[in-house]
Automatic annotation (TrEMBL):
Keyword set, alphabetical order: ATP-binding, Nucleotide-binding
Pfam families, sorted: AAA, AAA_lid_At3g28540
UniProt protein name: AAA+ ATPase domain-containing protein
UniProt KW Manganese keyword: no
CDD domains xref list: RecA-like_BCS1
UniProt-annotated stretches for the region Disordered: 1-22
GO molecular function: ATP binding; ATP hydrolysis activity
Length: 327
């Protein structure tokens, strides 16, 4: 709905126009319906600066809850092609430690509510996250959980499909506000040239788009890099202002396992401790990823069978790990 607020003359307390069923009525313009609010003049400040902003924020929340999220991928002709995002990942179902989950949520919430702060300090309203760790630790699922939590579309940028710095710039200018720009496996998605020849994608081009034109042409944007090998990345990619928060996605800890056991088998922590007390000791040795745990739990609908198979895997991994340490 297009917002039109005709500010009242002092003392009248009248705002905007009323709804109408007639297309020819001034209250309807291009099929849009406008509303009239009448109130006592002494409440003018409350209506303009409290009530209307509240209505607007609630309308935004309702639109976000009902909107269909999209994933955009760059095509060979330097355009974005979209498909519906159908990924059920949420922060409730994410297999992460409680403290890590809470810190990520706190940072996201702080970022979202600080639009005026970013404006006041002269910074682009964007936030960068680096997700790093072994394969199968939930990096892609965390991206989906963030998108679902914020109702943000995802722009999945495939650098292998970008010809040069100019093409990258055009793609980034085609992204919308309130979105996530995702570069997965940044360490191996493209051997970015530090000193490129003409017509090549360069590290400088990627950094300049992130720092400059992409930042200045939009707001409320999140950029996420994922990598299995943080140590191989150029330090220029990692500094604050580009990747503001570095999130280590590690092997499955007991808190993450409790979430997985609840998701897949309906077991709570008390039941796990009572029925399978050895799991806590075995899983604390950093020998299995959340994806591998989930795969074992999916092999049987019978709790005893699924958990028995998982215990065998954990015992096998633990013995191998101890042998390696003894060498």
């Amino acid at each position: 709905m297009v917002r039109r607020y005709e500010l009242p003359k002092k003392g009248t307390g009248k705002i905007s126009v009323s709804p109408s069923a007639k297309a020819s009525d001034p209250a309807r313009i291009n099929g849009q319906t406008f509303l009239e609010i009448t109130f006592h003049g002494k409440y003018r400040g409350d209506v303009l600066y409290k009530y209307l902003p509240y209505v607007e924020s609630k309308a935004y929340q309702m639109r976000s809850e009902n909107r269909v999220l999209m994933v955009y991928t760059n095509s060979s002709n330097f355009r974005w092609e979209k498909t519906t995002l159908i990924h059920p990942s949420t922060f409730e179902t994410m297999a992460m430690s409680i403290n890590l989950k809470r810190s990520v949520l706190d940072d996201i919430n702080l970022f979202i509510r600080r639009k005026e702060f970013y404006k006041k300090v002269g910074k682009a309203w964007k936030r960068g996250y680096l997700l790093y760790g072994p394969p199968g630790t939930g990096k892609s699922s965390l991206v989906a959980a963030i998108a679902n939590y914020l109702s943000f579309d995802i722009y999945d940028l495939q650098l292998t499909g970008v010809q040069d710095d100019s093409s990258l710039k055009k793609l980034l200018l085609g992204t919308k506000n309130a979105s996530i720009l995702l570069l997965e496996d940044i360490d191996r998605s493209l051997p970015i040239q530090t000193n490129p020849k003409g017509g090549e994608l360069s590290l400088a081009g990627l950094l300049n788009c992130n720092d400059g034109i992409w930042s200045s042409c939009g707001e409320e944007r999140i950029i996420i890099f994922t990598t299995n090998h943080k140590e191989t990345l150029d330090l220029a990619l990692l500094r604050p202002g580009r990747m503001d928060v570095h999130i280590h996605m590690g092997y499955c800890c007991f808190e993450a396992f409790v979430t997985l056991a609840s998701n897949y088998l309906g077991l709570d922590e008390d039941a796990l401790q009572r029925l399978f007390p050895e799991v806590k000791r075995l899983i604390s040795k950093d020998v299995i990823t959340p994806a591998e745990v989930a795969e074992e739990l999916m092999k049987s609908e019978i709790v005893e069978v699924a958990m028995g198979n998982l215990v065998k895997v954990l015992e096998s991994r633990s013995s191998v790990s101890e042998d390696d340490r003894g060498r």
